[in-house]
Amino acid sequence: MFLAVIVLAALALLGSLTVVSVQGSMRQASADRFNAVALYAAESGAAAAMNYLRDVPHPIQGYSAYVSPNNVAPVSPAAIPGNNKLPGAAGNLMSADTQAWYRITILNNREDTGFASGLDQDFTVIIRVEGHGPDGSVAQLEIAIHSEKPSPAPLVILSWRQLL
Fold first, then answer.
1. What is the pTM of this model?
2. Please, which pLDDT band fits residue 57 given cuts at 50, 70 and 90?
3. Each residue of 22-53: b (16+ CB within 10 Å) or e?
4. Which end of the chain is less packed: N or C, by CB atoms within 10 Å?
């Protein structure tokens, strides 16, 4: 009888450990999926921003209308499709069930001679995209682009990096 109680206690302990392990694995899988959704949202925002910026550089002032002095107040153009549109809101380009959205800001590169004055003199800017997914997941990308010739201009991606 005593041996049966010990065996049952061991089996109960083993069963509860299995449940805890499976729950942890499921939680991690969900977090990975949510982070992937946030990254996909950020990549979608980057594509929308590059498509928008391809057609807007001024022949002389470059992207000056989209940068601020010393990047103190980064510009977040509302004209970029899907920018700052929460899930389910009109204009959000993503399916509402993904619970995904993105925020785009345009920064001047520090090497630009007009950085302090808020002028883009080298036709190079940095697109910072913050992608949001379910359950508070966030991914952040920075893409440095350069326009060889103003409007319409092919864009050259100088760098692409994930911050978060």
1. 0.82
2. confident
3. eeeeeeeeeeeebbebbbbbbbbbbebbeebb
4. N
